[in-house]
């Protein structure tokens, strides 16, 4: 089986080195958000990677060599790790500059943000799934999280940290996107990461978009990205690249959009060291306690299969855009139990390629036009 070396991002070979490594430091979190992938709990798992194992993991990440991956420390809530700042010191000593995705709890205060900045963190991510306390807190099922996120974003910038805003797209949140886009700009965020729901964890209870509307949303995102002062990327919506290519103007040249795939540019390490193609595909390719992350990513059968697009089944395997898109492997697995199956959110896949994309307004019936639409 051969690795797939399609590299839409700066010449990086994704079969050799991921763009992003995310380590779930812990599943512990004070919150219990309705859509949580991790099924977070109040208590830490006693089998979490300890401080020495965490530092070893950072050294393994550095061993990827040139073009060292971006490192994201996630959870749960990373602030639930009492050794977080020792881990950050270990990351810095390994030559890494980590980003952190803290939960929006009262622990995320100005002092904590300044300490993260002093420890060498370059970016934090905050989640905004609505543009107001009413809509965001209703989706999250946790009152007060909107105000905490807004305050944390502003204080983080004052502390010298770069800001990323993460947004989950579901049938409930999609109408909020134009107003969230305005808020992302107002906050001075460097990046807006728009995640198209994969129904895992507590997220299985949430309603996804219909495929044609999902494509229309990516069309709107592409228009948004042309003039936005922040970088816009999608997660688990690789058909965004196909939509962008269909929408580009003749003088735009080739289109580069931010989207990676499970095991193909992205890899996830769980709190207990299991290595997954993504946090939304609970199929283990190995464990960093037993084998180097580098060899697991490059050589495991699962990772290689996900990069070998000739192995894909159904419409995704027959699609002329497979090389540039490939469908969400995580969503295919969640829907079918087969990681090489077809992505049920892709309108081309569900229509046996009969779908013809038209750049329509995905919010026409649900929200007023944003000032940036």
TrEMBL record:
<dbReference type="GO" id="GO:0051539">
    <property type="term" value="F:4 iron, 4 sulfur cluster binding"/>
</dbReference>
<keyword id="KW-0411">Iron-sulfur</keyword>
<dbReference type="Pfam" id="PF13186">
    <property type="entry name" value="SPASM"/>
</dbReference>
<keyword id="KW-0479">Metal-binding</keyword>
<dbReference type="InterPro" id="IPR023885">
    <property type="entry name" value="4Fe4S-binding_SPASM_dom"/>
</dbReference>
<dbReference type="InterPro" id="IPR006638">
    <property type="entry name" value="Elp3/MiaA/NifB-like_rSAM"/>
</dbReference>
<keyword id="KW-0949">S-adenosyl-L-methionine</keyword>
<feature type="region of interest" description="Disordered">
    <location>
        <begin position="318"/>
        <end position="339"/>
    </location>
</feature>
<dbReference type="InterPro" id="IPR017200">
    <property type="entry name" value="PqqE-like"/>
</dbReference>
<dbReference type="InterPro" id="IPR058240">
    <property type="entry name" value="rSAM_sf"/>
</dbReference>
<keyword id="KW-0004">4Fe-4S</keyword>
<dbReference type="InterPro" id="IPR050377">
    <property type="entry name" value="Radical_SAM_PqqE_MftC-like"/>
</dbReference>
<dbReference type="InterPro" id="IPR007197">
    <property type="entry name" value="rSAM"/>
</dbReference>
<dbReference type="GO" id="GO:0046872">
    <property type="term" value="F:metal ion binding"/>
</dbReference>
<keyword id="KW-0408">Iron</keyword>
<feature type="domain" description="Radical SAM core">
    <location>
        <begin position="15"/>
        <end position="236"/>
    </location>
</feature>
<dbReference type="Pfam" id="PF04055">
    <property type="entry name" value="Radical_SAM"/>
</dbReference>
<dbReference type="InterPro" id="IPR013785">
    <property type="entry name" value="Aldolase_TIM"/>
</dbReference>
<protein>
    <submittedName>
        <fullName>Fe-S oxidoreductase</fullName>
    </submittedName>
</protein>
<dbReference type="GO" id="GO:0003824">
    <property type="term" value="F:catalytic activity"/>
</dbReference>
